Amino acid sequence: MISPSSSAAELMAHLQTLRSEDNIAGMARFGIVTETAIGISNPDLQRIARLAKKDHIRAKALWASGIREARLLALYTFDPKSLTEADARTLADGFNSWEIVDCAADLFIEADLDALIPDFAADIREFVRRTAFAMIAGAAVHRKKDPDESLLAYLPLIEIHSTDNRNFVRKAVNWALRNIGKRSHACHQPALALAERLASSTDKTARWIGKDAVRELTSEKLLARLG
Questions:
Q1: CA distances to 18, 96, 214 from 140, in Å
Q2: d(Cα 119, Cα 114) in Å, to the nearest integer?
Q3: Would you call 159 helix, strand, or coil by DSSP?
Q4: How many C-beta atoms surround the C-beta of residue 216 within 10 A?
Q5: Across 184-197, average pLDDT
Q6: Count of alpha carbons within 13 Å of 144, Cβ hemisphere only?
Q7: How far apart are CA 12 and CA 62, in angstroms?
Q8: Secondary structure of residue 7 in the 3-state scheme
């Protein structure tokens, strides 16, 4: 029975009972790294996390296991109020799959670790750099009380890295640009202007990022919502 008193070892033993080879094969088709996967869906892991509750020390032990699902469970059960920049950097050293990164980015935003965004963006490692732009994308959606200017300040960073043609980076850069542009009327025009500039770039990756963002930021549905 999963409870807040469950140890890391007990949680990992429970996860092993849920192993699904079919799910592992399905994950691989979505570009998820499955070498250490057990094959448990994120919604199922989230249900386990709700039963286990937050436990910062236990989460570190779960992460240290290296098992995909244990690491996701760790990210769901870390205490954002206790997460430090040093913790986040240690976690980032182990990033190797996009869905781990995106889950961690949400945690880092909840923990107010925005100061790490420029450092992560400057990091040459593909998944660490993705983290920076996943954090920006998440902040644009979840940080509703933040001033728009705090998001617009990331547009130059987006432009700088718009030529990184690695799949998981370019998609996150595009995601960040689109989310900023969709955030509010005040954010829309500056983001669209950057998207249009990138769309006319001579660089293939920047051009793809820009064209895709322009397509979404000029949709009738979005323009109607923004007024």
A1: 35, 24, 17
A2: 10
A3: helix
A4: 17
A5: 97
A6: 1
A7: 8
A8: coil
Average pLDDT in the 76-101 region?
A: 96
36-53 exposure pattern, b = at least 16 Cβ within 10 A, e = fewer: ebbbbeeeebeebbeebe
Report the amino acid identity of residue 226: L
* H and E: helices and strands count for the chain: 15, 0
Question: pLDDT exceeding 70 applies to what percent of the chain?
Answer: 100
- Count other Cβ atoms within 10 Å, centred on residue 15: 23
- Cβ 218 vs Cβ 182: under 8 Å: no
Neighbouring C-beta atoms of residue 115, cutoff 10 Å: 9
Query: What are the C-alpha distances in Å from 19 to residues 62, 78, 125, 198?
Result: 17, 23, 30, 44
Q: Are 86 and 105 in contact (CB under 8 A)?
A: no
CA distance 65 to 67: 5
Cβ atoms of residues 137 and 177 within 8 Å: no
* HSE-CB of 73 using CA atoms within 13 angstroms: 39
Give the tokens for residue 182: 């969709």
pLDDT mean across residues, the chain? 96
State pLDDT tens for residues 112-121.
999 999 999 9
Is 32:97 a contact under the CB 8 Å cutoff?
yes
What's the N-to-C CA distance of the chain in angstroms? Answer: 50
Tokens 């450092």 locate to: 119
> What sign does the dihedral 47-76-144-217 (CA atoms) show?
negative
